[in-house]
Write a structure and sequence with these properties.
ADP-ribosylation fold; four-stranded antiparallel beta sheet
Length: about 240
């Protein structure tokens, strides 16, 4: 895929990753790890539903994905995943990243025209099929993370890879999303991905330096709001401290 908006990225250590979901899934995930949705209905009915065989991970947008999973009706949970413990050969690029990275490339535009692949949804589904049919996404998961903040894991994310959970009450998550309202695309990640990542650190109580946030003209969520988030550290055997 080199020369067409994407090229394979040399292997580097994977960062901490996050998965946002409804708090109703907490007990099942602590027992079984994070499972793909499988035959369950997707949460993205307004666009392209998620890949039923993958778990979506992010460095940047877990609160948004958690709210989508909970459909805005309940408490949410953000799981921290140790990227170093994942099987690297099961990581894939987010098909939305592949679509976004190629949509303005003349060579890809010509190919899609020949193949009759028209529109964003059709391109996303084409990439989803070709990831498996042609091993198209090999080596692009890290680039997907570094350019859009998202990637996919083919199959279950095992319980042993989970390190912490942030449990966020419904009202708090709704208030926080006003600070970090995302548009998940390459351009948004390039401009404000760092801001969303600072937000994740704040939600987990990691106390990052927020001076660059205020200097850039953004607001920092108040401490009394962040203090309502419960962060739990997980033991390797699956219990919470």
């Amino acid at each position: 895929m080199a020369g067409h908006g994407m090229s394979q990225t040399p292997q580097r250590p994977l960062p901490l990753l996050y998965h946002g979901t409804s708090a109703a899934c907490l007990d099942a995930i602590l027992r079984e790890g994070i499972r793909p949705r499988g035959d369950d209905p997707g949460n993205w009915k307004h666009t392209v539903t998620s890949n039923p065989r993958c778990v979506y991970l992010t460095t940047t947008y877990p609160l948004y994905f958690a709210q989508m999973a909970g459909e805005g009706y309940g408490d949410v949970a953000i799981f921290e995943v140790d990227g170093a413990r994942l099987q690297r050969n099961r990581l894939l690029p987010d098909e939305d990243f592949l679509q976004d990275a190629t949509k303005d490339d003349p060579k890809w535009q010509a190919r899609f025209e020949i193949w009759g692949v028209k529109g964003m949804k059709a391109r996303v589904m084409w990439f989803r099929r070709e990831i498996y049919a042609r091993n198209l996404g090999k080596g692009l998961a890290l680039q997907s993370l570094e350019r859009m903040g998202t990637c996919c894991h083919d199959g279950n994310v095992s319980r042993e890879t989970l390190t912490r959970i942030a449990l966020i009450p419904k009202d708090v998550s709704i208030a926080l999303i006003a600070y970090y309202d995302p548009l998940v695309c390459i351009m948004n990640y390039h401009t404000v991905g760092w801001l969303h990542q600072r937000g994740v650190a704040l939600m987990f109580g990691d106390d990052p330096d927020t001076s660059d946030i205020t200097q850039a003209g953004w607001h920092v969520p108040p401490k009394e709001l962040l203090d309502q988030i419960t962060v739990r550290t997980l033991r390797t055997e699956g219990e919470a401290k």
